[in-house]
C-alpha cells in the first residue's frame, strides 16, 4: 500500500510540469465574461522584503477575503468588476488598493510598512479583529516584537519559554525540556523549524530553546482545530518560521548577554531577487561560572552553540526556492563527556500556477543525536566507555492551495523515512574492547490529506478535511513477541524473534483523521467557534523521568507498540471590545480530549540500550479537559495579556496505581499568567515589562511507610498509589526594562539595553519534593524540596543593529 | 571524583550538572499518610563460614526515625535444594534470627545451590527463594596520588581495584567497600554490575570491570596514607540486581531527572494471596573480599 502512496507523492511533486502544460492550454481559450478571475500575490514587509504570514486581504464589495499563507502568498477569486482590496496586518499600516478584474487574472504584490513605535498613538484599524474573524481557534501567535519584550532567563528572549505564558501551555517545572499542551506530554508536540521537525528543542536541558530569536520571523502554536495538512503528533503544532533575510539592504544584528552572545547577518542576493540570513549563538557560561563551581566540578566545560541559516531566490514571478538549515550542539564535560544536538535542513520550492493554484514542495532532513564518553582527560585506548544514539528523518512534502473564491482547498501529502539508531556502546577495559549495538529500526510514515476552507455566508465559515496516515514498521530488523501471562505492570519476556529483510513490512497501521472547524460571527466583534480533530502519532519518546533528558530515545510504533491517537473537541467564544471596538481581545475556550495508547513504564524499567524495551512498556488511555480564559489589550500605555487555565489531565494504565485513573506528572489544576507591557507616553526611550506566573503544584508520589534493608532506609507506599500528593504551588515575577539608544539621523545604527530581573522576590519554587536519608544520621529521613532557581537573577543584555 | 566515576552510567547523575546552574535543596515539613505495618525481611546469606542472620522487622511510618520494631516470635527456616534444613532462631527477641553452625568453620551457603526461606509470622506464611551464583575474586587494589580536584593543591590516594567478570554467561554483582573497617554505606554507595559494566552497556562478558567501577570505591576526598581498604564483591541473581537498582533509584531520586517514586520489588511472597504482603528481600550470595593498606607497596605512580 505504501508504495502506492509513495508513487502518488512522486507524481504530486512533479505535477507542476504537466499542470503548466494545462494552464497554457486554458489561456488559449477565449475568456468567458462570467468566469471568475483571481487576484493573487505576495504581501511583504516594506522594510526588508520578508513575506508576511497571516495578513488579512479583505474585499470590501463582497465582504470576503483571504489570509496569506506561510510564504506570504494569498489568492481571492471573484467575478469581473472593480474591487477595493484592504490589506491589513497587526503592527503594520493598512493599505487599500483598487483592482479592476476584466477577464484577466491580476497579480497584486503589496509591501506593508510597520507602524510607528508608540503603539498608543496608532489608530486601531477595524481589521485587528483577526481573533474574531479568523476561523482558527486554539491558536496562539507570538510575533517577534512581543517576543523581544519578554526576556525569559538571564535577559534572553526565548521562543519556548515565551509560549509557556500562553493559555493551555505549561511545563513540568523550571528548566524542564519542552512544554505540555492541553494535557499532552512533550513528545506529543510537533516542533517545526521551517517545516523540518526538531526532535529536541532544548539547550542546557531546557533553560533555552534551539530557536535563535534573531532569525525567527513567526511563531504559531496550534492547540486545537488542527488543519489536515498537519499530522504526526497528537497535542499541538509549534510552527516556527525563519526570517528570509533582508532583501533590501545588508543588516547586522547582535547581542551580548550574560550567558551567551548572538550575531546575525542578512543581506540581499542577486540584486534583490534573493536574500539570506546567517545567525549564530555561543554560550560562555562555562567561562564565567568557572570560579563559582564547587570543587567536584571545577575544570568542567559546559556550553552550547547553534547556527541558523536561510537563503531564498526568486527565480521569477512564479517560482521561489528556499534553503534553511539549523545546526546546534550542547557540550558537557569533566572527566566524562556528554554532548547532544540537532541538525535540520530543508529545501522548499514555491510555485504559482494559474494564480489560483499555489504549490509548496518541501524536502527535509532532520537529525538528533547524542554521545557519551567516560574518559575525556585520559585519552588511553585501553579504558573507556562510549555510547551514542540518533534519530534521522528524510521527508518529501508537496502541499497545494487552490483559491476558488469562497473555497480554499488545500491538499497534498507527506512521505517520511524514519531511521532510529537506539544506541551503540563501546566498552574498553584493560585493553579489551567490546562493541554492542542495538539494530537500527526503520519506518515509513506517509500521509495524504485534503481540506477545504469554505465561506458559507458572511458570518459562517467552515474548515473541514481528512487526512489518511499510513505507518509501516519495516525491516531490516528483528520483531519480537512477548509473553502475555505476566502479572500486570511487570516485565514481559521475549518468546519468539522473527528476522525481517530490508524493506519487508513488519507491521502496518493506518488511520483516518477527520478535522473540522466552524466559525459563526454573532456580531461584528464576537464569534463562536467549534472544532473537532483526530490525530495519530506513530513515533514516541521513551522517557520515564520528570524532565526529559537528552538521553531519551525515540522509538517507532512496532508490532508491540500501538500508535497514539487523540480526539479533541473544543469550543470557544471570542469577543473584542473597548476603544474602536477592539482595544481588547477576549476569548474563552473549553476542550475535552480522549487519548489512546499512551505509553507508560513498568517499575524498574530499563530504557537504555535495551533490546527488549517493548517488554518494559505499558499502554494506557488518557483524558484531558479544561477551560482557557484569555484577555489581551492591544493598545495603550499598559498593554499585554492575562490568561487563566483550569485543567485536568489523567491517565489509566493497567499495572499502575492499581489500574485506577491518576493525574499525570504535568497535571496542573490552575495556571495564571500575566504579561504586562508598559510603554510610557513621556519616556520615549524606555519601555517596561512584567511577567507573572502562578500555577498549582504538580503531582508526586509520597511514601507512607519505610523499612530498612542492609542499613538503607527504603520508602514504601502502602497502597502502591501513583501521584497521591501535590508539591507546593509555583509563582514567579520577572521584570524587564529596555532602554533604546539615541538614534542619530545620519547613522543606521540602532541599539538598546535590556535590564531584567528573573524571580524578583527570590522564591524557592519547588521543582520536586523527594525523600532521602539524612547525610549525617542515615536513620533520620527527611523530605526535601528541590528548586532549580532559588534566587533572583539579575542580568543585562546589549543588543545592536547596523 | 567518586561521583563522576558513575556519571556516564545513567541519566540519574545528570542532576549533579544541573546543580551547577543554581539548584537548591531545602529540607521541608511534609505531612504523610501512614499505612498499616507490614513484615519486612532483611535477608542476606552468604557462602562464608560462620553464623548467618536474617532480620525481621515491621514497616513504620516514613518519618519514624527510631530503630524499626522487631518482628518477633516468627518461625524462620531455610532449606536448600540438596535436602538440608537450617533453623534460624531469635533467642534475644530482637528480630535478628540467627543460624549457628555446629563447628566454627561450618558453612551454610554453597555456590550453585538454591535456598528457600520460610517464615511463619502472625498466622501468615511467607516464602522467598534465592540462588548463590558464582563470583570472581578481587585481584588487586592499587592507589595513585591524585589532586582532590583539578584546581586543588591537596592530594589524596585514589583507589582502583581489579577484578574480572567470569566468562560464559551474564553475571550480576554488587560492590561494597570499607575504610578502616567501616562500611561505606551511603545511598550513593550502592554499586551494581552486569558483567563488567552496567546494565544497558556493551556486552562486557569476561572483561576486567570497566574503569568507572574500578574507581567506584573512593570516599569524597580519597584515602590517606596508612588507611586500610577492603573491597567486597557479592554475586547476585538477576532479580536481586534489579532490587538493588530499584533501591538505589528510590533513595537517590532527586533533581530534574527523577523517576516516578515506586515501591521497590520484593521476593517475599505471602502464601495466602489475600494476606498482607511483605516487603524487603531475601538474597543468597557468594562473597569475595580483599584488604590492603595504602602504602609504598600498593601505590603506583
TrEMBL record, chain A:
Q: Which domain of life is it from?
A: Bacteria
Keyword Membrane recorded: yes
Cellular component annotations (GO), alphabetically ordered: cell outer membrane
Task: Supply the alphabetized keyword list.
Answer: Cell outer membrane, Membrane, Receptor, Signal, TonB box
Q: Which family does it belong to?
A: Belongs to the TonB-dependent receptor family.
User: For the TonB-dependent receptor-like beta-barrel domain, which residue ranges apply?
Assistant: 290-759
Q: Where is the signal peptide?
A: 1-21
Keyword presence, Ion transport: no
Name the InterPro entries for this protein: Beta-barrel_TonB, Beta-barrel_TonB_sf, CarboxyPept-like_regulatory, Plug_dom, Plug_dom_sf
Q: Where in the cell is it found?
A: Cell outer membrane
Primary subcellular site in the record, as a coarse category: membrane
Task: Tell me what this protein is called.
Answer: TonB-dependent receptor
Annotated TonB-dependent receptor plug domain residues: 135-233
Amino acid at each position: 500500500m505504501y508504495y502506492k502512496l509513495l508513487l502518488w507523492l512522486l507524481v504530486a511533486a512533479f505535477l507542476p510540469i504537466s499542470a503548466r502544460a494545462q494552464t497554457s492550454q486554458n489561456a488559449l481559450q477565449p475568456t468567458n465574461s462570467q468566469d471568475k478571475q483571481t487576484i493573487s500575490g505576495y504581501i511583504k514587509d516594506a522594510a526588508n522584503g520578508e513575506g508576511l504570514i497571516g495578513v488579512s486581504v479583505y474585499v470590501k464589495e463582497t465582504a470576503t477575503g483571504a489570509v496569506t499563507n506561510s510564504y506570504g502568498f494569498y489568492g481571492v477569486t471573484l467575478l469581473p468588476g472593480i474591487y477595493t482590496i484592504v490589506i491589513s496586518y497587526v503592527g503594520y499600516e493598512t493599505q487599500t488598493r483598487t483592482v479592476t478584474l476584466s477577464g484577466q487574472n491580476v497579480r497584486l504584490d503589496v509591501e506593508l510598512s510597520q507602524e510607528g513605535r508608540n503603539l498608543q498613538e496608532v489608530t486601531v484599524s477595524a481589521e485587528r479583529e483577526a481573533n474574531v474573524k479568523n476561523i482558527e481557534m486554539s491558536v496562539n501567535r507570538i510575533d517577534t516584537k512581543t517576543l523581544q519584550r519578554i526576556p525569559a532567563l538571564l535577559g534572553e528572549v526565548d521562543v519556548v519559554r515565551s509560549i509557556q505564558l500562553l493559555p493551555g501551555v505549561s511545563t513540568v517545572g523550571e528548566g524542564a525540556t519542552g512544554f505540555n499542551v492541553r494535557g499532552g506530554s512533550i513528545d506529543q508536540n510537533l516542533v517545526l523549524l521551517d517545516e523540518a521537525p526538531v526532535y529536541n528543542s532544548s539547550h542546557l536541558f531546557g533553560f533555552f530553546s534551539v530557536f535563535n530569536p534573531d532569525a525567527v520571523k513567526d511563531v504559531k502554536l496550534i492547540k486545537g482545530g488542527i488543519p489536515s495538512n498537519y499530522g504526526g503528533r497528537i497535542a499541538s503544532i509549534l510552527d516556527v518560521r525563519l526570517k528570509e533575510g533582508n532583501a533590501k539592504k545588508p543588516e547586522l544584528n547582535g547581542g551580548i548577554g550574560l550567558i551567551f552572545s548572538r550575531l546575525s547577518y542578512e543581506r540581499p542576493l542577486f540584486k534583490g531577487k534573493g536574500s539570506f540570513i546567517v545567525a549564530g549563538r555561543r554560550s560562555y557560561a562555562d567561562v564565567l561560572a568557572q570560579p563559582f563551581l564547587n570543587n567536584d566540578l571545577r575544570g568542567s566545560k559546559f556550553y552550547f552553540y547553534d547556527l541558523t541559516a536561510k537563503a531564498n531566490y526568486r527565480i521569477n514571478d512564479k517560482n521561489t526556492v528556499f534553503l534553511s538549515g539549523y545546526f546546534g550542539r550542547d557540550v558537557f564535560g569533566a572527566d566524562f563527556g556528554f554532548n547532544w544536538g540537532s541538525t535540520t535542513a530543508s529545501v522548499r520550492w514555491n510555485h504559482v500556477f494559474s494564480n489560483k493554484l499555489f504549490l509548496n514542495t518541501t524536502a527535509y532532513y532532520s537529525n538528533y543525536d547524542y554521545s557519551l564518553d567516560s574518559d575525556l582527560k585520559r585519552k588511553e585506548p585501553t579504558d573507556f566507555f562510549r555510547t551514542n544514539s540518533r534519530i534521522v528523518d528524510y521527508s518529501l512534502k508537496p502541499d497545494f492551495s487552490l483559491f476558488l473564491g469562497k473555497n480554499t482547498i488545500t491538499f497534498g501529502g507527506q512521505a517520511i523515512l524514519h531511521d532510529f539508531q537506539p544506541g551503540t556502546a563501546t566498552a574498553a577495559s584493560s585493553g579489551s574492547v567490546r562493541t554492542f549495538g542495538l539494530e537500527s529500526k526503520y519506518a515509513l510514515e506517509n500521509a495524504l490529506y485534503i481540506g477545504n476552507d469554505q465561506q458559507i455566508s458572511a458570518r459562517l465559515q467552515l474548515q473541514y478535511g481528512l487526512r489518511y496516515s499510513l505507518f509501516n514498521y519495516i525491516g531490516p530488523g528483528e520483531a519480537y513477541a512477548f509473553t502475555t501471562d505476566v502479572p500486570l505492570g511487570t516485565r514481559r519476556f521475549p518468546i519468539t524473534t522473527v528476522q525481517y529483510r530490508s524493506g519487508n513490512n513488519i507491521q502496518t497501521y493506518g488511520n483516518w483523521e477527520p478535522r473540522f472547524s466552524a466559525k459563526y460571527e454573532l456580531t461584528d466583534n464576537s464569534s463562536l467557534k467549534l472544532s473537532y480533530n483526530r490525530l495519530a502519532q506513530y513515533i514516541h519518546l521513551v522517557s520515564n523521568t520528570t524532565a526529559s533528558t537528552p538521553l531519551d530515545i525515540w522509538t517507532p510504533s512496532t508490532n508491540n507498540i500501538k500508535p497514539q491517537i487523540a480526539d479533541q473537541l473544543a469550543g470557544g467564544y471570542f469577543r473584542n471590545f473597548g476603544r474602536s471596538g477592539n482595544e481588547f481581545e477576549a476569548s474563552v475556550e473549553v476542550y475535552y480530549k480522549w487519548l489512546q495508547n499512551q505509553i507508560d513504564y513498568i517499575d524498574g524499567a530499563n530504557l537504555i540500550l535495551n533490546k527488549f524495551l517493548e517488554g518494559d512498556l505499558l499502554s494506557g488511555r488518557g483524558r484531558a479537559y479544561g477551560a482557557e480564559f484569555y484577555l489581551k489589550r492591544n493598545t495603550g500605555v499598559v498593554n499585554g495579556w492575562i490568561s487563566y487555565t483550569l485543567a485536568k489531565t489523567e491517565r489509566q494504565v493497567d499495572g499502575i496505581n492499581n489500574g485506577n485513573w491518576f493525574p499525570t506528572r504535568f497535571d496542573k489544576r490552575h495556571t495564571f499568567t500575566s504579561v504586562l507591557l508598559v510603554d510610557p507616553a513621556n519616556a520615549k526611550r524606555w519601555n517596561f515589562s512584567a511577567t507573572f506566573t502562578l500555577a498549582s503544584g504538580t503531582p508526586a508520589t509520597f511514601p507512607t511507610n519505610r523499612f530498612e534493608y542492609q542499613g538503607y532506609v527504603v520508602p514504601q507506599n502502602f497502597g502502591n498509589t501513583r501521584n497521591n500528593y501535590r508539591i507546593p504551588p509555583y509563582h514567579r515575577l520577572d521584570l524587564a526594562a529596555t532602554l533604546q539608544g539615541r538614534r542619530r539621523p545620519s547613522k543606521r545604527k540602532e541599539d538598546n539595553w535590556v535590564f531584567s530581573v528573573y524571580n524578583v522576590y527570590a522564591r524557592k519554587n519547588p521543582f520536586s519534593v523527594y525523600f532521602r536519608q539524612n547525610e549525617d544520621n542515615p536513620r533520620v529521613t527527611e523530605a526535601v524540596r528541590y528548586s532549580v532557581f532559588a534566587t533572583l537573577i539579575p542580568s543585562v543584555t546589549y543588543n545592536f543593529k547596523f | 571524583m567518586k561521583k563522576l566515576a558513575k556519571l556516564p552510567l545513567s541519566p540519574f547523575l545528570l542532576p549533579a550538572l544541573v546543580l551547577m546552574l543554581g539548584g537548591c535543596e531545602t529540607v521541608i515539613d511534609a505531612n504523610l499518610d501512614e499505612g498499616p505495618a507490614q513484615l519486612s525481611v532483611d535477608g542476606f546469606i552468604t557462602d562464608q563460614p560462620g553464623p548467618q542472620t536474617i532480620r525481621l522487622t515491621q514497616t513504620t511510618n516514613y518519618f519514624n526515625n527510631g530503630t524499626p520494631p522487631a518482628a518477633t516470635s516468627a518461625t524462620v527456616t531455610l532449606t536448600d535444594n540438596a535436602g538440608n534444613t537450617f533453623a534460624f532462631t531469635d533467642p534475644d527477641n530482637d528480630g535478628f534470627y540467627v543460624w549457628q553452625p555446629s563447628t566454627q568453620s561450618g558453612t551454610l551457603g554453597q555456590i550453585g545451590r538454591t535456598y528457600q526461606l520460610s517464615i511463619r509470622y502472625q498466622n501468615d506464611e511467607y516464602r522467598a527463594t534465592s540462588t548463590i551464583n558464582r563470583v570472581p575474586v578481587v585481584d588487586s587494589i592499587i592507589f595513585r596520588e591524585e589532586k582532590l580536584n583539578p584546581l586543588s593543591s591537596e592530594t589524596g590516594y585514589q583507589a582502583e581495584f581489579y577484578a574480572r567478570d567470569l566468562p560464559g554467561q551474564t553475571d550480576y554483582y554488587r560492590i561494597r567497600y570499607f575504610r578502616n573497617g567501616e562500611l561505606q554505606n551511603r545511598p550513593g554507595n550502592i554499586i551494581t554490575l552486569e558483567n563488567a559494566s552496567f546494565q544497558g552497556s556493551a556486552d562486557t562478558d569476561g572483561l576486567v570491570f570497566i574503569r568507572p567501577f574500578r574507581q567506584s570505591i573512593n570516599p569524597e576526598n580519597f584515602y590517606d596514607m596508612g588507611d586500610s581498604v577492603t573491597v567486597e564483591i557479592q554475586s547476585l541473581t538477576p532479580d536481586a540486581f534489579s532490587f538493588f537498582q530499584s533501591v538505589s533509584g528510590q533513595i537517590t531520586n532527586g533533581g530534574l531527572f527523577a523517576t516516578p517514586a515506586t515501591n521497590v520489588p520484593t521476593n517475599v511472597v505471602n502464601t495466602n494471596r489475600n494476606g498482607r504482603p511483605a516487603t524487603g528481600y531475601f538474597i543468597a550470595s557468594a562473597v569475595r573480599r580483599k584488604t590492603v593498606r595504602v602504602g609504598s607497596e600498593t601505590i603506583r605512580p
